[in-house]
Amino acid sequence: xxxxxxxxxxxxxxxxxxxxxxxxxxxxxxxxxxxxxxxxxxxxxxxxxxxxxxxxxxxxxxxxxxxxxxxxxxxxxxxxxxxxxxxxxxxxxxxxxxxxxxxxxxxxxxxxxxxxxxxxxxxxxxxxxxxxxxxxxxxxxxxxxxxxxxxxxxxxxxxxxxxxxxxxxxxx
Amino acid sequence: xxxxxxxxxxxxxxxxxxxxxxxxxxxxxxxxxxxxxxxxxxxxxxxxxxxxxxxxxxxxxxxxxxxxxxxxxxxxxxxxxxxxxxxxxxxxxxxxxxxxxxxxxxxxxxxxxxxxxxxxxxxxxxxxxxxxxxxxxxxxxxxxxxxxxxxxxxxxxxxxxxxxxxxxxxxxxxxxxxxxxxxxxxxxxxxxxxxx
Lengths: 172, 196
Hints:
The complex is a heterodimer of chains A (172) and B (196). Chain A is an all-alpha fold. In chain A, 80% of the residues lie in helices and 0% in strands. In chain A, helix 1 (3-25) packs across helix 7, helix 2 crosses helix 5 (70-84) and helix 8 (125-132) crosses helix 9 (136-154). With 196 residues, chain B is α+β, with helices and mostly antiparallel strands. Chain B is built from three helices and seven strands, in the order αααβββββββ. In chain B, strands 3-2-1-6-7-4-5 form a seven-stranded mixed beta sheet. The longest helix of chain B is centred in the N-terminal third of the chain and has 38 residues, at 27-64. The interface between A and B is large, with 54 and 36 residues.
């Protein structure tokens, strides 16, 4: 992967990966930091990345691993904060997103990760298993538990799908 | 939210929200950082050559200087500490690396860990002791990149988390990254070295 190819890969995937990591870890700045750090490592080992054939999955996996390591989180945040100056003015998140992030944070990290990989990254269960290094059966169980837990946590909130159905009936 | 379609849409909205707030670095900045990391690792490998040159100079001086025969390398910090000088980063480099076995780790009060370092040089991929042994007292939160030490899984840990594994004698080789002030900023397991 030469500079041009890397730049195109970066430009084409960095935003998407930040969004995915945001859904996995629930922190925007954190998601940006770990994705950038993962791209740094991707460039460092670009030769191996070419052979791997799935650079975006590699970056996502590395970014996730970075995110779950708390000390690294603190260190990369500080490093990037120092390099990038104060954070830009970002509008506050949508209320629904706050609810969803809070709900996602309440389920175990492994369940959250597979839910995001399957429902947001559009990976099949087998692909999720490959990316997480877990057996297919485990991924299926985590997906099921994760969805059930989210439904329970979001019951009777504005994100409760039953509320949508009621309003649709009311709308007639 | 039990419905998959609903979850898909909610997550997509959430991810889009995360993307909107992102201001990622330019690609060339990412590449520059990757290149710096690569140079750091190369410097760590090359440091063996520098240490070899220093050892030759010291050895040469001892040949012309009258006095008792030097004893075999003794892994005793107090006898060899004067030989140790923290490496200095080359111009444009963030860190300079020292290769060494790290052992004798002891957790101290105040969030610190004391370790002994038996300095090594990289001789065609094989770890060879230089005879220099010194002690370091480091913050317990010093980052440690591990691989074999963690059962073969690459990962990032804190020094305080590996104290037990580094308590015994010389076994695990690391590259210690010194900043321009001579402070150790991180340790990286030197898994590329063959340890004899």
